[in-house]
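#struct-help
A.M.: can someone run this one for me? Single chain, 242 residues.
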Amino acid sequence: MSIHESNSPLVVALVEDDPLLRDEIEVHLKAHDFEVHAVNSASALDDLTARIPFDLFIIDLNLPGEDGLSLCRRLRHSLPNVGIVIMTARMALIDRIAGYKQGGADIYLVKPVAPDELVLILLSLGRRLKQGKTGEVWSLSLRDRTLVSPHLEQKLRLTSREKTLLVALVQAKENTLDSGSMCDLFSDDEDDAVGMSKHALEELVARLRKKLKSVQPEDAEAAIKSVWGVGYQLCLQIKFVF
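D.P.: on it. Structure tokens below:
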């Protein structure tokens, strides 16, 4: 029985040069109702992207010809709203950071990955992308520090720091900021002349996540996700109102 939760299958591009692994993943994902197009290189993928509207990409970093990181970067630039999952044997921190910061990946997985876990990861990422496409836009009032949820138009009152954090994430490239930059946002505070500590930042993010969760559907993704080795990414669409 499939664990897919949508009547419309997610369209997945799998770029993996190991033929056995590629076939195994393709068969497993198709068994769970994904539409899968599997290729062994970036050039082969280019032949498909011109005619197939992909939702998600699973990309190995060690590819013949153009490497996976370069491919991710290209895809993120040309298709900013798709989901990109890096799945590689590279486990070093420097590779993870490059995958997120340079490649624009949503998720970085180190092989081997359990097939059922991969299915759940893709479904989760697909739900978040679908939510973005359905126009679920939150409204942030810069004047009175209120955030209005698209779900029953519930209103949240934000603290000054929470508002500052959200504004910075909304305006950041790919809605992602490193922890150091986020701490520096508060360097002008009277109580934090040298900026906020990372521990204090973690507490601020945790409180804000809890506040946002209170007006989100029960099965919704976290509004702010941790990007391992980098910082945080905002996973909501927010518009400013004045």
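A.M.: thanks! Residues 115-133 form the longest helix (19 residues).
D.P.: also worth noting: The chain has a mean pLDDT of 87.
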